[in-house]
Amino acid sequence: MLSRQLEVVGAAVDSAASTDQAFERILQTAGKNSPFALVLADAVLPGMGGEALSRHASSDPRLKSLPILVLSPAGNRSPGLRYLSKPITRLELYRGV
User: Fold this and answer.
1) Cβ atoms within 10 A of the Cβ of 33, count?
2) What is the DSSP-derived secondary structure letter of residue 87?
3) Which residues contact 61 (CB under 8 A, 6 or more apart)?
4) Which residue, 82, 97, 69, 83, is CA-closest to 11?
5) Helix/strand/coil (H, E, C) string of the chain?
6) Which of 82, 78, 89, 85 is nearest to 38 (CA)?
């Protein structure tokens, strides 16, 4: 659903089945001419989860400047990470990205 909403406004979207798969794709593009401009990751996904993905990426010098937004229900949140609250409206999504 989020992919479709972003594609409608002209964003190029790439989806992954898990955060582990997403991280591999991020690493593959990091050294190329077309790295990701932004990553949206759900806090609860198979693999490491969005919060761990964000922390893992920030520890890699090639990915330090990559913005990662974690989709999460309100509540327990780790300091220093950027969040969008679920459920998310189209307007909140557009404002967040």
Assistant:
1) 5
2) S
3) none
4) 97
5) CHHHHHHHCCCCCCCCCCHHHHHHHHHHHHCCCCCCCCEEEECCCCCCHHHHHHHHHHCCCCCCCCCEEEEEECCCCCCCCEEEEECCCHHHHHHHC
6) 82
Amino acid sitting at position 55: R
* The amino acid at 53: L
For residue 36, give both structure tokens. 């990701």
CA distance 9 to 11: 6
Q: What string of pLDDT tens digits covers the 97 residues of the chain? A: 788 888 988 888 999 888 889 999 999 988 776 678 899 998 887 778 899 999 989 999 889 889 999 999 877 788 889 998 888 888 888 888 7
And the tokens for 51? 């919060």
- Residue 67 structure tokens: 């913005």
